Prior knowledge:
Number of strands: 13
Radius of gyration: 38 Å
Oligomer: single chain
Distance between the termini: 145 Å
Structural class: alpha+beta
Amino acid sequence: xxxxxxxxxxxxxxxxxxxxxxxxxxxxxxxxxxxxxxxxxxxxxxxxxxxxxxxxxxxxxxxxxxxxxxxxxxxxxxxxxxxxxxxxxxxxxxxxxxxxxxxxxxxxxxxxxxxxxxxxxxxxxxxxxxxxxxxxxxxxxxxxxxxxxxxxxxxxxxxxxxxxxxxxxxxxxxxxxxxxxxxxxxxxxxxxxxxxxxxxxxxxxxxxxxxxxxxxxxxxxxxxxxxxxxxxxxxxxxxxxxxxxxxxxxxxxxxxxxxxxxxxxxxxxxxxxxxxxxxxxxxxxxxxxxxxxxxxxxxxxxx
Length: 303
């Protein structure tokens, strides 16, 4: 009786043979996968003393000695050297010299191999968060071209912030009666702020004019953010570019409309008196009335 006849007369024989072949195939696949996994673990795991790693095929690669955050500049303390079976992964570093000082463009876990595509020599490659000085915050101001020195403002410049508020912000004098002229005021709000970005540009473009920029992002201390937010909401913000070597701060000053009148700096303002020119005569000066539209201002000038 041949094999075909035996199968035809006994179908269970073919079923049993199929089960055996399937079991053998599964066993071979499992053994192959186990061997590959073991080889991969041996290659990635750090060698231990007496492990017998072949010195001729072993290579040194840099790994993170601790967690490294995006935007962090690497120091020698952030890196460690590890021996592993070669070849070295593409883009890895063999020594810390070429990696120290670079900025991480993404988070790097402790013991993870440090690769070239996760580092950059330019801090801007890690985004604006990497440019914010420690203890400060990035804050965006809405501006027009005339508010950023005609568009010549560049990322990396330092600026003073001026805020101009319309008279309506201050309301009517004493809360009742008609307003006495325009009560608009301008103030030096903040000084010596670092510009992080002009529009979407995180780096300087040399002499190019940022005529299309509609926002400027500055670095400011947390206690200054509320002032910037309120000034941007109620007033008009203008930025003045500082000389890079000029880091001195000047006394803050608020200017009202009357401060712009001719002679305002040298003439003393005086309220009208009920006795006509008697008060001016007693003060030893001439009483002068300055008309500006429907408004009038009385000053006393020396004789």
